[in-house]
Amino acid sequence: MPVEFISPYITNLLIFIGIYIILVVSLNLTLGYTGMLNLGHVALFAIGAYTSALLMTRLDFPFVIAFLAAGIFAGFFGYVLVLATKKLKGDYFALATLGFAFIVVNLLLNLQGLTHGPLGIPGIPKPSLFGLTIQSNFSYLIFVAIVAFVSVFIIYKIVKSPFGRILEATRDDEIGLRVLGKNTVKLKYKAMIISGFFAGIAGSLFAHYLSFIDPSSFHLSEIILVLTIVIVGGLASIKGSILASFVILLIPEVLRFLALPSSIIGPGRQIIYALILITILMYKPRGLFGRVDLE
Q: What's phi and psi for 150, nearest 5 deg?
């Protein structure tokens, strides 16, 4: 690769890593700290991306409003998801959330009057803050880094607060917590709303960086990728989620430097994800920094 392309290439990777850190840490809030195997997290990511894109391209909303609306809409659908599945637990809850993800993707494909279906939404404008438009990738990297830092800091404060300890108690012994008079369903509502909000924020950053989104960006492979990062980093470990985001997203990039056909690179990445996951779970069942077992 020519030297002049190395810096933009690394900048591009770091932007995606920053976006995925927000997405993964927010999933760890529900999966690691609350014990909810939410396989619909990427659907909330998609809702945030489409909300922000549509508000700016169709209704000409300012970026700040579209950005916050992306988080609020995704958080609302996170609440709806728990409301619809509040009587389900474990594997049944996981399957229901996976079904929710498929429903969202199919709606994005078929509501062509709103989402343009498989054609996607082109021409998504770059963010504009205080009258300044973020045009260069380096400026966007700084913006993503700031949002990622603030997002992770807020989630860290949440999990270290008394509310966070109650979430962990919900994960470890939900029945015992109910005996003590705590409304565990209400706790799950709150956890999913917070998790969905930050997934929506990540979706907005994703949409405005690429300037184009379509339903193929939010398929099953993305669910597998995000879940792999959480498991490799370790459940209930924000540090692990951040480190695993770098590891999982950077290692497959080695394939770009090998003289391989493009038809092999895509499946090759999935094989690498699988090998990393299997190796980690064999030698460190809790992940790199996990504090609880994956059940």
A: -65, -45
CA 78 to mean position of chain CA atoms: 13
0.90 cut: is pTM over it? Answer: yes
C-alpha neighbours within 13 Å on the C-beta side of residue 224: 11
Check residue 216 and report its DSSP letter. Answer: G
Please, which residues bridge with residue 128 across strands?
A: 133
| Alpha-carbon distance values, 286 to 55, 137, 229, 250, 275 (Å) | 41, 36, 12, 21, 16
> What is the per-residue pLDDT for 263?
67
3-state secondary structure at position 195: helix
Residues whose CB is less than 8 angstroms from the CB of residue 133 and which lie 6 or more positions away in sequence, other chains included: 125, 126, 127
**How far is the C-alpha of 59 from the C-alpha of 174, rounded, in Å?**
44
Q: Residue 128: enclosing H or E segment and its boundaries?
A: strand 128-129
244 Cβ contact partners less than 8 Å away, ≥ 6 residues apart:
24, 229, 230, 232, 233, 234, 287, 288
Contacts of 59 (CB under 8 A, 6+ apart): none
Angle (deg, nearest 10), helices 90-110 and 63-85: 140
List, in order, residues 6 or more apart from 122 with CB less than 8 Å away: 211, 212
Q: What is the mean pLDDT of each run of 10 residues along the chain (295 residues)?
A: 63 96 96 92 97 95 96 97 89 93 94 92 91 88 96 96 93 87 91 97 97 91 89 92 92 71 69 78 82 69
Residues 216, 219, 223, 229, Cα dihedral to 10°: -30
